[in-house]
Amino acid sequence: MTRVAINGAAGRMGRELVIACQRNSSLTLAAAFEAPGSDAIGQDAGRLATGEDADVAIASADDRDASTFDVLVDFTRPEPCLSAIDDCVAGGAAIVIGTTGFDADQLARIDKAADKIALVMAPNFSAGVNLTLKLLEMAAKALGDTVDIEVIEAHHRHKVDAPSGTALRIGEVLADATGRDLDDCAVYAREGHTGERERQAIGFQTIRGGDIVGEHTVLFAGDGERLEISHKASSRQTFAGGAMRAAGWAAQQKPGRYDMNDVLGFDRD
Ligand SMILES: NC(=O)C1=CN([C@@H]2O[C@H](COP(=O)(O)OP(=O)(O)OC[C@H]3O[C@@H](n4cnc5c(N)ncnc54)[C@H](OP(=O)(O)O)[C@@H]3O)[C@@H](O)[C@H]2O)C=CC1
Ligand SMILES: O=C(O)C1=N[C@H](C(=O)O)C[C@H](O)C1
């Protein structure tokens, strides 16, 4: 049995992760953590997620001892995630990172930690989104500079980062497939007299509202026709189940940085 710990266990994803862990027969919930001072500390992680006790009390992230679990799953915010990584390095545990919104310095710290522990990081753990990335790569290679490419994403009103981590990953895949550098061609906002659109631009449109779980569409707009490839998540269990699959896999790996292509066994080309 792989011993799993969940960071941010009282959050939207944290509660779904508790459920997904309980549904996976090769995993056992060993620990759950929340922000120091959180009202959730001391509450049972299972009771919070499902109404039934899991006999795992949520502890403060300050009291984390990574020798008591094999892998930690983090869906929190960048800074708490980096603290969790430090603890996993100290205790020799693997980590699965679903958190999004890291800056370049933070990403460099994550890369460094992967020299010491197995680290699986993905902006989206749903199998459907990871398959969508493959379809997008194929479409972008085939259509190339004959179309204008726009990435449209929609999420719930509580999301704090934009564009979504998934949209940014989509942008990287599209840029690679068309031989562009995303830093040069990304357009994140348009207002006023913008001038005509440049063919090489990859545009991002962000929608925030209500309880939208997560939707991503790529529009390939040509003359006389347009192609749209969409993924729409309707339940956070799709992310949580994928993250638990990654947790079981990560616990068996040697140190290194991995993503969902590795977990799902997808080819890299
Ligand atoms: N990769 C993927 O498949 C997916 C990624 N995500 C990403 O996951 C992250 C979380 O999303 P979501 O669940 O909606 O957000 P929530 O705000 O609902 O959950 C985050 C949780 O982390 C807690 N937290 C804050 N600080 C700490 C700390 N120091 N130690 C431990 N826990 C802490 C928060 O507590 P408090 O509220 O008290 O601050 C909260 O309970 C986001 O970055 C989101 O983009 C989301 C879905 C899928
Ligand atoms: O914050 C969310 O909810 C989600 N975040 C991830 C992202 O930023 O891509 C994945 C998912 O779409 C839900």
How does this model look, in words?
InterPro entries: DapB_C, DapB_N, DapB_N_CS, DHDPR_bac, NAD(P)-bd_dom_sf. (S)-2,3,4,5-tetrahydrodipicolinate binds at residues 156, 165-166. The active site is at 155 (proton donor/acceptor), 159 (proton donor). Its main location: cytoplasm. Catalyzes the conversion of 4-hydroxy-tetrahydrodipicolinate (HTPA) to tetrahydrodipicolinate. The chain has 269 residues and is of the alpha/beta class. It contains nine helices and twelve strands. It has helices at residues 12-23, 45-50, 78-91, 104-113, 127-143, 165-177, 182-185, 237-250, 260-264, and strands at 2-7, 27-34, 58-60, 71-74, 94-97, 118-121, 148-155, 186-187, 202-208, 214-221, 226-233, 256-258. It has a seven-stranded parallel β-sheet with strand order 3-2-1-4-5-6-12, with helices on both faces. Helix 4 links the parallel strand 5 and strand 6 (118-121). Helix 1 packs across helix 8 (237-250) and helix 3 packs parallel to helix 4. The longest helix has 17 residues, at 127-143. The two termini are 33 Å apart. The mean pLDDT is 97. It binds NADPH dihydro-nicotinamide-adenine-dinucleotide phosphate and the ligand O=C(O)C1=N[C@H](C(=O)O)C[C@H](O)C1.
Secondary-structure-derived class: alpha/beta
Radius of gyration: 19 Å
What is the typical, i.e. mean, pLDDT? 97
How much β-strand is present in the residues? 15-25%
- Poorly predicted residue ranges: none
Main beta-sheet annotation: 7 strands, parallel
SSE ordering: EHEHEEHEHEHEHHEEEEHEH
Distance between the termini: 33 Å
Number of strands: 12
Order of neighbouring strands in the sheet with most strands: 3-2-1-4-5-6-12
Helix amount: 25-40%
Small ligands present: NADPH dihydro-nicotinamide-adenine-dinucleotide phosphate, the ligand O=C(O)C1=N[C@H](C(=O)O)C[C@H](O)C1
Number of discrete helical segments:
9
Shape: elongated
InterPro entries: DapB_C (IPR022663), DapB_N (IPR000846), DapB_N_CS (IPR022664), DHDPR_bac (IPR023940), NAD(P)-bd_dom_sf (IPR036291)
Pathway: Amino-acid biosynthesis; L-lysine biosynthesis via DAP pathway; (S)-tetrahydrodipicolinate from L-aspartate: step 4/4
Subcellular location: Cytoplasm
EC number: 1.17.1.8
